[in-house]
Amino acid sequence: MLGSKKNQERPNSADDDQGKALLKSVLNGMGRKVELLLFADPAVNAAHASAARGLIRQLRELTAKVGFKEFSLNHELALKHRALHSPTLLLDPEGHDIRWLGAPAGEEASAFVQALLMLGHERTGLGGQALKVLGEIKEPRKVKVFVSPTCPYCPQQIVNAISAAVASPRLVAVEVVDVTALPELAERYGAFSTPTVYANERLIAQGAQPEELFMLSLKELSQQNVFIPDNDAPQIETDLVIVGGGPAGLTAGIYAARSGLKAVVVEKGALGGQVSTTPSVENYPGFTEVGGKALVDIMVSHALQYANIFPGEEVMDIAITPDRPMVIATNRRRFLARAVLLATGASHRRLGAPGEERLAGRGVSYCSTCDGPLFKGKRVLMVGGGDSAVTEALHLHQIGVEVVLAHRRGELRAQKRLLDTLLASGVAVLYNTEVKEIRGVNRVEEVELQNNLSGDIQIMQVEGVFVAIGYDPAVELARKLGLAMTEGGYIRKDSRHRTSVAGVYSAGDVEGGYKQIVVAAGQGAEAALTIFEDLMNPYWTGARAKGEREQS
Ligand code: NAP
Engineering a disulfide at 343: which of 6, 249, 294, 438 sits with its beta carbon 3.0 to 4.6 angstroms away? Predict the structure, then answer.
């Protein structure tokens, strides 16, 4: 490619000639001429300006479809086009806001040529999913891509950004910043590695991204790690439908697909379930400490390599007819499957105190990771005595929230290590204390607390009440299917995760037991392996009758 390191090494003149001929033909095949404007100050970055001119000259030797004009940085056109730095190269300035600060040299040269071709052919190579996400952006985006000539990952981000500007010229403006020409700009943004991308002054990506993920980051204006494609098919045939995209469901997806089954994961809420809102996880093997959301992103990316995931989709009904595929109806489509795994997890338990429901979202919260930052510098009550309450109280304390922990018993039941950290943190703990009422007009203002030993009532002024008192299993589908349940309200299953209905399995928190990420993941793996064996050799058509199975 012109100007690239490979070219400087002069590999083989026959290859070079062939490459030039090909480039000439695609450049001449462009449907329109692309104008380039260069603004430069001879006293600033002269070598960069000269490299830019050199590349453009080489291109113009191949085609008349690239126009070029150069002006000084003092010229009135520089003002019109807001060219502030030397050199600034504008691509198709009448139709697009795409500019290069510095020279498109080294690795970046290939991205520059691709940009010209996109403008000249008036089309990008973006796929349907990327275009769809881009189309969902309704507000302007001003993108800055910090790059360097020796960075092999930079061209991809440049092409992503310029593709967005070509496909959506009214909303997307792009500035490619060569950090070797403008180190002070990189310093100002804190772009200490390349490629780094900012949009509307917010960091949205570090490193190269697939185009869909880039568009998602651009849309969300934040760093994104996972892109899950949309699927519009009204009916999908598969072997296994996994209901729930927490650690159990995602692991089951990996194991089922690796066994040779076709598996899909359907999740109505946040992928990762409760883990996605856990501030910090310190007991998942392989990670001494990892944010819950980061762990979920890793699990989802891993599972996506094996199973299709349908986020934001709710299973409404499961119909089971002997000797026919099961029909799993969601709010978007039908799945026809041979087995179903319920990994539906559990949802936050409610306190049941007066005022709790009315003030939910107005100071009453079940998610400290989500809502904690809103209470910085304010006083809140955390209710509960288990690992969640203590972990979340510590999280709030760390981010500058004044926390008081209230527990209905004389001692906390959280793990010793967490208790030690809590005691060392200075977070106040009220024992034998129950919440009688949460009060406030439009938002939480105070709580009425009662000591259940002395009966004493205390009114405490707080702006938030965080509730972390355990979980209730999500068993609506299980009940609809008529599955046998335990006394505690969990799904009854045998030691291999078979429920009381043939072809229906369970895994994770919906089964009760230890609610640990690693346990849920292990149960998902076990269930998937059982399902594989059962589908190869269905016990429900064999000698073993349903009633013979041991159930726990
Ligand atoms: P949990 O262990 O079931 O504890 C719930 C706490 O809330 C208990 O202290 C309980 O009091 C109290 N509680 C229950 N209902 C209440 C009510 N109506 N009013 C007032 N208090 C009430 O729940 P969790 O802390 O959410 O933990 C769930 C599971 O996740 C556990 O297995 C835990 O180990 C795990 N987890 C692990 C980590 C970690 O390892 N880092 C972090 C979070 C959660 P009593 O003691 O009186 O029953």
Answer: 249
Quote the ligand 1 centre to 397 CA distance (angstroms).
Answer: 19
- The pocket around ligand 1, CB under 6 angstroms, is made up of 283, 349, 351, 383-389, 391, 408-409, 413, 468-470, 514-516
> Global pTM?
0.69
Distance in angstroms (rounded) separating the CA atoms of residues 421 and 126: 50
Evaluate whether residue 231 is within a structural domain. no
pLDDT tens per residue across span 224-266: 988 888 888 999 999 999 999 999 999 999 999 999 999 999 9
Q: Output the DSSP codes for 473-530.
A: E--HHHHHTT--B-TTSSBP--TTSB-SSTTEEE-GGGG-S---HHHHHHHHHHHHHH
Q: Structural domain tally of the chain?
A: 3
**Do 188 and 55 reside in the same domain of the chain?**
yes
Which CATH number does the domain housing residue 507 bear? 3.50.50.60
Minimal-distance CA residue to ligand 1 atom 34: 387
> pLDDT at residue 115 above 70?
yes
What whole-number distance in Å separates Cα of residue 368 and Cα of residue 467? 9
Cα–Cα distance, 236 to 378 (Å, whole number)? 50
Give which of 336, 339, 390, 257 is closest to 540, Cα–Cα.
339
Instruction: Please give the order of strands across the beta sheet that includes 402-406.
Output: 364-365, 464-467, 379-383, 402-406, 428-430
Name the residue range of residue 168's domain: 5-220
Ligand 1 centroid – CA 512 distance (Å): 13
424 falls within a domain: yes
Instruction: Establish if 77 belongs to a structural domain.
Output: yes
CA-409 nearest atom, ligand 1: 47
End-to-end CA distance of the chain: give it in Å, rounded. Answer: 66
